[in-house]
Amino acid sequence: MLASVRSLRRLSSSSSSSSLSPASLRRLLLLLHRPPPPPPPPRPPLPPFQTLARGLLPRIAARPVPRRFSTASCSSTLFRVGECGAPGATAIPEAERGEEEEREGEDGGEADAAVEVAAGRHDTDAYAAVELALDSVVKVFTVSSSPNYFLPWQNKAQRESMGSGFVIPGRRIVTNAHVIADHTFVLVRKHGSPTKYKAEVQAVGHECDLALLKVDSEEFWDGMNSLELGDIPFLQEAVAVVGYPQGGDNISVTKGVVSRVEPTQYAHGATQLMAIQIDAAINPGNSGGPAIMGDKVAGVAFQNLSGAENIGYIIPVPVIKRFISGVEESGKYSGFCTLGISCQATENIQLRECFGMKPDLTGVLVSRINPLSDAHRVLKKDDILLEFDGVPIANDGTVPFRNRERITFDHLVSMKKPGEMAVLKVLRDGKEHELNVTVRPLQPLVPVHQFDKLPSYYIFAGFVFIPLTQPYLHEFGEDWYNNSPRRLCERALRELPKKAGEQLVILSQVLMDDINVGYERLAELQVKKVNGVEVENLKHLCSLVESCTEENLRFDLDDERVIVLKYQNAKLATSRILKRHRIPSAISADLVDEQATDDGEEATNGEIEASCTS
Predict the structure, then answer these.
(1) Is 513 annotated as catalytic?
(2) Where is the composition biased (Low complexity) (predicted)?
(3) Which residue range is the domain that position 239 belongs to?
(4) Would 488 be classed as within a structural domain?
(5) Is residue 12 one of the residues assigned to a domain?
(6) Structural contact between residues 468 and 583, judged by C-beta atoms closer than 8 angstroms
(7) Given the residues 182, 183, 206, 209, the one annotated as active site
(8) Cα separations (Å) of 331 from 451, 459, 505, 515, 603?
(9) How high does pLDDT run on average in the chain?
């Protein structure tokens, strides 16, 4: 329709410029002496551009119409809808165009002007959104130093990195957690300014790869605007990623469309949370920058798919809001909830029949339950989980999402607040039951990451004891899964904790001395017992060693290996070994703090008992 209106306008303007023949002049004079014909009935005004689009698009799409349109997409959509017979967009036959041009030339010009004004308004809005982002997006400069898990008493070399961030209401800056991980110093710079301002990290959520920064300088906030958080974009909606990627120092804007919305593995936190896949280029430096749709934020750029072109991912608004609300309520990052169960799909009909599932029932089979979760109190192995908070779960573990989309039901769990109640409907022994479960974040037996803190360690007689963590396994290189000790790797990925505070304590290495000759090949084994007492965690091992009253100190390791030391000789050797290897302390600072706290509590309890006795 837009094309036909513009052609009408061009034809009328070109015909008015030609000269009149004598015959035409006579006809014109006769027409001037005739009485004027009655005026034609007024034509209804052309509806506003955006309203017309919203009125017509639902006829070809069952989902809500995106809030914003580009000029090209709107005109072509309107023309296609007109071809389908939608009201308000009738096609003009070729034979009648001449008469229509004479009658509607003026109206066509007005319609063209209205369309151009509307299109210009949308272009202006788009540019205004970009201008708003320019006053909201900042460049983040980070100086960081990561721990050395092979030598846990020292850090690795200092390094510098850069990322992006944007301002939200409350004078806060949102960026990625991996941009400021293990930071020692953080600076930010706003667009168009040569000055860098010191920033403090207010909260970090490594699972969701988000962080909040604050800047105390009043000068920094002059002229800064905050961005509002929007909604989850629909498929094929356009977004603009704003940030400071590698290849230059100035701000960069790239455009793309939404390709997919589903739970995805977050590379930084190794968790499954909802993410949005887009086809815009997200390069190093883009991390933490906003993905803008209209005049609001649709997500935060945070990772791309290696080995593929133009496949990037942004963190959606529900995850961002969940992170921010947790920080506002508790003053710190509270984590994302989990049920603490492992489930198996029930797509096989024989499996469903075995567990008494009727044809109209769908759900997943509960295969493992974390002993530390509240689900361990009410659920049983081989239960069929049918519904979560009234939402039916399909046989493949998915639930409905928006319009004809599906996501795993884990997303419903992760969006609940810690301590919140969830209602589960399960099938057990052929009968349906409704159970109430409290959801909360759960820590794995072997930590997946340990950012912004030093590793724990304890050294005795040259034996370096540490709790097993995945960062320790990552020190074996990029192919750590194959290069790290197989037994430790399997335990790190599969074992569940049996009680709170449990750790897998390993002998990571042996610092050679006369006291430990012959034991050097026992490194990378788990410590099971100390003097016959099972080890619960590194703090427990430390207390068992320090409180030893026997002549010999015995460690029982994996594969039935045994270490026996003369306790007093080993204590003397420890200081000698520390001095030789320039190690400042035999025990990490966190264990020293815990021991001091425990000693303080014991002293306080003793004073209370003495006071009560007197």
Answers:
(1) no
(2) 10-22
(3) 124-330
(4) yes
(5) no
(6) no
(7) 209
(8) 19, 36, 32, 49, 31
(9) 80
